[in-house]
Amino acid sequence: MLAFTSEGQAVYEPDGAVLTECFWDRSWFSVIQGPVGSGTSSMLAHKIWRIAGEQEADRDDVRRTRWIVTRETYPMLRKTFIETWRMWFPEETWGEMVRSEPMQHVLKADHWSGDGTRIECEVIFLAIPNAESAETLLASFEITGFVQNEMQFTERGVTTELLSRVGRYPSMMNGPGATWFGGF
User: Which 8-state DSSP code applies to residue 179?
Assistant: First the structure.
């Protein structure tokens, strides 16, 4: 049974040992696959948010992260991961999602510790159809991490290109840089 905050927002808790282990795994690259309805997309959405809050703050007390979430096409992204994302991070609470392609949602909140820092978590939803287009589509992207939704249907070259972009955001000019980076 779900718990809810005083504002009526559902509180996420991984369902079972495998999802819990993956949720807390901080390896630079981790993979999980489950049957339809197993909750992997919900867990991955919350793993993004949790890691965003675990980053060390820049000198201005903001914990910044930038993520790319991929599928092969925008319709696939809209019908799968984005629906899950919007269920857990509704625009009425978290702010409007930019729907132009690539789509983007920026979550901002005070850190849950009450330490005076803020979280700024930028999530970019990007269709990457194949390895040939990955380099062009990802050119100049500086990200903290990525999620490849339904990775089993993606060419290995897409993963390789995404891994080459992680750890570049936030910049070390304003603080410690990405204190965790990677993909799942």
Answer: S
17-63 tens-digit pLDDT: 888 888 889 999 888 776 565 678 888 999 999 999 999 999 999 99
Q: Give me the helices (H) in the chain, please.
A: 17-24, 40-54, 74-79, 81-88, 91-94, 131-138, 156-163
The structure's pTM equals 0.90
d(CA 61, CA 83): 31
Token pair belonging to 100: 């132009």
Summarised one tens digit per residue, pLDDT across range 83-116 is 999 999 999 999 999 999 999 999 999 999 999 9
Tokens of 31: 């993979």
DSSP string, 110-122: E-TT-SS-EEEEE
